[in-house]
């Protein structure tokens, strides 16, 4: 299920802020690969002559200068040996024990697995056939990807049979890979694309020279983002240990060379690159979770040093688009601290010159934004309902467009030409496959495109509820159930939660969710604080010293669901992934009687120990979400009060199924192994200390996947899971 990675403003900003988070739970497409990245010689000639210089955070570097970190003395290896060997032995023993336990238990589920696999594969075939793959419209040409191949066809004849093959992963030795992102140079002479392996989050950028016989021009390992500044100048960011802090420029002229353009000195910040819709500027975006800084590369003169838009100001996020010699700034600057659209002349970009264009309503989430020559389209969400706001720069008006009530998620289609008169997008929900829509600026109306071969599900009912939390805050819940189901209090209920990083619960279409609806299940999505469903304040009210509010929200949601007749505790399961494991695991400790089972995928369950280990690649960046227990004793106590691992105690626990990955760089496997061992011991201690008749011992199962990483697995691996 590969996709062409073209993102718009808020998606870009959120993605760059949260991508490197070890817990973000982003639905990143993971790619199979057997690529062996070539050794990079870009810095070799300066390795022995590095200069040391104190630089401010995020500095533009002259072409000849490369920064180096001061060497630090390491403790004697001899002193470390004993503890390291003990830790490694414990890890190996725990892993071996869990693998044996999984092999014994999973055999019991084979008959059920066979039935479920068959159903899922039928649904997958039915809906993927009708959806097709994303298209990149570029003048009269359309670029699209199918089965590891990139095709080129004319816009009026998009058919795989009539298209030219530009790239094939298999033919060029990149078998078993997915194509993650595609960028076409302005004159369409070059194409850059990224390939990503299943077992790593590192991507490899391939640059192909297009023509009668396309030729691979360059292979660049460890690349995160890349954009064409001109027909033959490519900018890209390099990735190391889940961090992106360097920007390079490489040319494909007669004088080929690669140079370092920008380096970020602050470890809390993550750097990526994007191109404005009109291709006037490249933006170098340096973001922490709370603060942004943007530098502009003039595409008319890509060799000129980048220019700073506005120096980073603590607590202010911003991102840039361009139109008619004005920068349009999407920012949290000013009160309230929610996103606003502002503008400023290119000649004087300082914050003091920013002028308000449009401010969002209270508790409204800006999901995405697309800039066109005469219009700006805002994709918005309010209490679960989706709608569009179309800003006209000609008439200076704003029109609000209502969307179908079943829609829960936007999926934008790529149309890089800013002069187009139509905005294309898709709407979807967990149980509704993506449906194509278009908004016509000329006709001023919404068009439902008749390309859906499979009808929208009509027997699924969508209900929206508001649960009152401990502090009286109303928390939205989205519920799906089969209209034909009767006596819903006796039906099984699957509750979803996340609640971190200002990220919404993933509510895109999944075949397994539709299968559950057809089997009579109820699906509930709890939009608790810490997530982003009601804007930036909703996230702020559920992070750091407010994490317990998310737990109170989750409890209130489950209790309301049961109260209004959606299932009951004995038929309720709770599911979470990544950082969602914090709230799910916490509820499992505080209110285990509310659920019968819990399913966790790559869960973050050992918050305190992880945040105490600054040698882990992402701990410092995470402090803006969880706090810093190393320097703040009150923060340590607060984290300890809700941390799932720290609060396990002998009591009756629900059954638990956890999937973890050996190659996960974001969630240390050792923490998951320790959590499972402690949870199992507590459940057994409780069972042995009580002599009640029919005492129930929960199943606590861990499946450690040898393949895969923190991002999404392949379709086959997902089916197996």
UniProtKB/TrEMBL annotation:
The keyword Cytoplasm is annotated on this UniProt entry: yes
Recorded GO CC terms: cytoskeleton; cytosol; Golgi apparatus
SUPFAM superfamilies membership: alpha/beta-Hydrolases (SSF53474), Peptidase/esterase 'gauge' domain (SSF50993)
Peptidase S9 prolyl oligopeptidase catalytic domain span: 508-685
GO BP annotations, alphabetical order: proteolysis
Entry's family note: Belongs to the peptidase S9A family.
Cited function: Serine peptidase whose precise substrate specificity remains unclear. Does not cleave peptides after a arginine or lysine residue. Regulates trans-Golgi network morphology and sorting by regulating the membrane binding of the AP-1 complex. May play a role in the regulation of synaptic vesicle exocytosis.
Stated name of the protein: Prolyl endopeptidase
Organism: Indicator maculatus (spotted honeyguide)
């Amino acid at each position: 299920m590969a996709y062409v990675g073209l993102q718009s403003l808020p998606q870009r900003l959120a993605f760059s802020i949260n991508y490197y988070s070890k817990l973000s739970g982003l639905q990143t497409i993971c790619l199979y690969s057997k690529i062996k990245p070539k050794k990079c010689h870009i810095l070799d000639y300066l390795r022995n002559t590095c200069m040391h210089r104190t630089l401010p955070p995020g500095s533009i570097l002259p072409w000849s200068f490369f920064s180096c970190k001061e060497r630090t003395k390491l403790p004697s290896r001899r002193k470390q040996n004993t503890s390291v060997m003990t830790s490694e032995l414990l890890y190996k023993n725990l892993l071996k024990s869990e693998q044996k336990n999984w092999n014994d238990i999973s055999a019991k589920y084979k008959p059920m697995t066979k039935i479920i696999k068959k159903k899922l594969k039928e649904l997958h075939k039915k809906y993927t056939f009708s959806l097709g793959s994303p298209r990149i419209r570029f003048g009269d040409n359309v670029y699209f990807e199918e089965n590891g191949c990139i095709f080129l066809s004319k816009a009026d004849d998009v058919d795989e049979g009539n298209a030219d093959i530009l790239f094939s992963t298999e033919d060029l030795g990149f078998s078993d890979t997915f194509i993650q992102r595609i960028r076409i140079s302005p004159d369409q002479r070059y194409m850059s694309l990224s390939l990503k392996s299943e077992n790593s989050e590192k991507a490899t950028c391939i640059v192909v020279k297009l023509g009668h016989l396309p030729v691979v021009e360059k292979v660049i390992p460890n690349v995160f983002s890349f954009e064409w500044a001109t027909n033959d100048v490519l900018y890209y960011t390099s990735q190391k240990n889940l961090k992106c802090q360097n920007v390079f420029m490489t040319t494909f002229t007669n004088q080929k060379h690669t140079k370092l353009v920008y380096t970020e000195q602050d470890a809390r910040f993550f750097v990526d690159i994007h191109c404005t819709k009109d291709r006037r500027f490249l933006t170098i975006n340096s973001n922490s979770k709370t603060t942004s800084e943007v530098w502009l590369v003039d595409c008319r003169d890509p060799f000129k040093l980048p220019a700073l838009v506005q120096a980073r100001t603590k607590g202010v996020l911003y991102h840039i688009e361009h139109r008619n010699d004005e920068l349009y700034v999407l920012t949290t600057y000013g009160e309230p601290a929610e996103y606003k659209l502002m503008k400023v002349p290119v000649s004087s970009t300082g914050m003091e010159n920013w002028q308000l264009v449009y401010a969002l309503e209270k508790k409204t989430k800006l999901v995405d934004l697309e800039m066109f020559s005469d219009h700006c389209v805002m994709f918005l969400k309010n209490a679960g309902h989706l709608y569009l706001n179309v800003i006209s720069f000609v008439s200076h008006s704003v029109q609000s467009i209502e969307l179908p009530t079943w829609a829960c998620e936007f999926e934008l289609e790529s149309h890089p030409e800013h002069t187009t008169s139509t905005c294309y997008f898709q709407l979807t929900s967990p149980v509704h496959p993506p449906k194509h829509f278009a908004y016509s600026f000329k006709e001023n109306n919404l068009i439902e495109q008749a390309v859906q071969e499979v009808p929208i599900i009509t027997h699924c009912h969508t209900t929206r509820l508001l649960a009152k939390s401990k502090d009286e805050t109303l928390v939205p819940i989205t519920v799906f159930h089969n209209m034909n189901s009767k006596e819903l209090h006796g039906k099984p209920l699957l509750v979803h939660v996340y609640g971190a990083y200002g990220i919404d619960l993933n509510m895109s279409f999944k075949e397994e969710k539709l299968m559950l609806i057809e089997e009579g299940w109820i699906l509930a999505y709890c939009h608790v604080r810490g997530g982003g469903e009601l804007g930036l304040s909703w996230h702020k009210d559920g992070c750091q010293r407010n994490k317990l509010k998310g737990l109170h929200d989750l409890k209130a949601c489950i209790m309301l669901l049961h109260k209004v007749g959606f299932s009951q505790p004995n038929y309720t399961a709770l599911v979470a992934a990544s950082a969602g494991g914090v709230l799910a695991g916490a509820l499992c400790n505080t209110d285990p009687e509310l659920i019968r089972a819990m399913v966790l995928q790559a869960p973050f369950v050992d918050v305190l120990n992880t945040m105490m280990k600054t040698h882990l690649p992402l701990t410092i960046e995470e402090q803006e979400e969880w706090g810093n227990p190393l320097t703040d004793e009150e923060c340590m106590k607060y984290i300890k009060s809700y941390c799932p691992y720290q609060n396990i105690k002998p009591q009756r626990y629900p059954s638990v199924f956890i999937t973890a990955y050996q190659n996960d760089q974001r969630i240390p496997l050792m923490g998951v192994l320790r959590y499972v061992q402690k949870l199992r011991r507590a459940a057994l201690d409780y069972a042995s200390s009580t002599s009640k008749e029919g005492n129930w011992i929960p199943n606590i199962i861990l499946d450690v996947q040898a393949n895969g990483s923190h991002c999404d697995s392949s379709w086959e691996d997902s089916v197996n899971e």
